[in-house]
Write a structure and sequence with these properties.
By secondary structure, the chain is of the alpha/beta class. The chain has 14 helices and 14 strands. It has 2 domains: 194 residues, Rossmann fold, CATH 3.40.50.2000; 188 residues, 3-Layer(aba) Sandwich (Rossmann fold), CATH 3.40.50. The strands form 2 sheets. The chain has an 8-stranded mixed sheet, with helices on both faces. Strands 11-10-9-12-13-14 form a 6-stranded parallel sheet, sandwiched between helices. The longest helix has 23 residues.
């Protein structure tokens, strides 16, 4: 069986969880079937069972905005599919390619990592016309797909609620995974050296945020909660590129307010890209990892933190409760959109409980590592995905 995966993100051009997902899913699937990855970029590589091809937007649409460029690239991806058994797309950026593949008689499997109607802030990034186009592309592809994969049980319910035309039997929950060998606690001297390079004291407890600067990830809530943390603790942010300059400026201002409210030198804001081996050192030495997402179909970062034995304080929303076991691997806090200060106070209360109790941190960190090893390996994700492929193939491409 030859499977073609269509995605915007693939190494080295990865900025979010969807790119991490496709990278590891493709590698794990290559042990079970022949895989070709078609992605946005200039990649052109082959490995046993795995071919990677990059596609760029044609000059005719250059500068037309990310939604129009995605339309052009995903159309180009749908060419030359002879010999493929099916096409599997990831995110709306690539979804049109899978939709068009159905006209070639190929089944289309679509993994939704988020839903555009539940991310209204994307209009600021894409513009009104771009957001309208992305929403149309997503709806069209999901409603026509032969099988839809949601990355958690709650994400599956979101698909059925937002797109009621999709039959429930066609939507399957297959969770994200994490590379538990890559994400593990490094030796103590290694993690100390990493923190020292970035000016972060290794022996002072700190609360950690890792994520893109988008309203979805809740960095502003984390920063407001941090104003209530034990004054002896430090605060560390490993921030990816902002969705928009305006949101980046909002976070910058919030960081400066936090610095003014806390002890000098106690807030560490790393805006440059940090490699994975260094990120795991920050996870490993964190007293608490904070994930205050306002919308999160799953949240791979929580698995990364748990794999590195960091206790997690996260929002009780979307697929996060599928990963974080409340009271065992961390704490979950209810989101109150009408009263964000209550949410922020709840985050601070739970983070302070972990900052004050090394034994609790160690117990929850160990439980998190065990949970990752037991439930969230990429091998298991690939096997469930491949089983869905086989069902489609045995049904002659009929929707399942």
């Amino acid at each position: 069986m030859r499977v073609v995966l269509l995605t915007r993100e693939y190494p080295p051009h990865v900025y979010g969880g969807a790119g991490v997902h496709v990278e590891h899913l493709a590698a794990a699937l290559a042990r079970l079937c022949e895989v070709e990855v078609r992605c946005f970029g200039d990649q052109d590589a082959s490995a046993p069972g795995l071919r990677v091809r990059g596609f760029r937007a044609p000059d005719a649409v250059a500068g037309g905005g990310p939604a129009l460029e995605a339309l052009a690239v995903s159309t180009a991806m749908a060419r030359d599919l002879e010999g493929a058994a099916l096409v599997h797309t990831h995110t709306w950026y690539a979804a049109l390619g899978g939709f068009l593949a159905r006209f070639h008689g190929l089944p289309h499997v679509l993994t939704t990592h988020s839903l555009e109607p539940l991310r209204p802030w994307k209009e600021e990034q894409l513009g009104a016309a771009g957001y309208g186009l992305s929403s149309w592309l997503e709806r069209t592809a999901i409603e026509a797909a032969d099988a839809v994969i949601a990355v958690s049980g709650p994400a599956r319910q979101d698909v059925l609620r937002v797109y009621p035309a999709v039959p429930p039997g066609r939507v399957h929950a297959i969770p994200n995974g994490v590379d538990a060998e890559a994400w593990r606690r490094p030796p103590d001297d290694e993690s100390r050296a990493v923190l020292a390079r970035h000016g972060v004291p290794a022996d002072v407890p700190y609360a950690l945020f890792v994520g893109r600067l988008t309203p979805q990830k809740g960095a502003l809530h984390f920063l407001e909660a941090a104003r209530r943390l034990d004054p002896r603790a430090h605060v560390v942010l490993l921030a990816g590129a902002p969705d928009t300059p305006e949101h980046g400026e909002r976070v910058d201002r919030a960081v400066e307010r936090l610095r003014a409210a806390r002890a000098p030198g106690g807030v560490h804001y790393l805006k440059a890209w940090v490699p994975r081996d260094e990120v795991r050192a920050f996870y490993a030495r964190a007293a608490v990892y904070g994930c205050p997402s306002v919308y999160e179909p799953f949240g791979i970062v929580n698995l990364e933190a748990m794999a590195c034995e960091a206790p997690v304080v996260a929002t009780r929303t979307g697929g996060i409760p599928d990963a974080v076991e409340d009271g065992e691997t961390g704490f979950l806090v209810d989101l109150d959109p009408a009263h964000p200060e209550r949410f922020e106070a709840g985050l601070a209360e739970r983070m302070n409980a972990l900052l004050a109790d090394p034994d609790l941190r160690a117990r929850m960190g160990g439980a998190g590592r065990r949970r990752v090893e037991a439930h969230f390996t990429w091998r298991a994700v690939a096997e469930r995905t491949h089983a869905l492929y086989r069902r489609l193939s045995s049904s002659g491409g009929k929707r399942v």
